Amino acid sequence: MARKGQVKIKAVFDDKIEYRGSLAKMKSDCHILGLTQEVRKKLGKTFGDEVLVSLVEDKEGRKVEIADDIKAVFNENPDAKVLFDAMSYTHQKEYIRWIEEAKKTETRESRKVKMVLMILEGKKGV
Known about the structure:
This protein is α+β, with helices and mostly antiparallel strands and 126 residues long. The protein has helices spanning 37-43, 68-76, 78-86, 89-100, 105-120; strands at residues 7-13, 17-25, 31-32, 53-57. The radius of gyration is 18 Å and the shape is globular. The protein starts with 6 loop residues before the first strand and ends in a 6-residue tail after the last helix. It holds the Pfam family OmdA.
């Protein structure tokens, strides 16, 4: 049976690196699994190298891990938390990653405030 859209998967590359992601249809008849730069670095592989891939369909729910300081911001802004919870896993992950990638404490703090404002304005991602 042909599948439309993305297919959630769990993959293991070279029997050592686990990955959760999606197979995507990229204007083709088949689904494609991209190998992220992060996974390539962990494997020590580059374009043209062979990689052993094991994958299964991922039927488990996906939940973004939220650090305590970000939970505190949501506790102070329950309307933003309700909107955040209604977003897709991908959009939630994008917001949390944006905050967690901040190198300085001040940047992290300002991004938390910006996140709440953007969510309340209806923005689905950064």
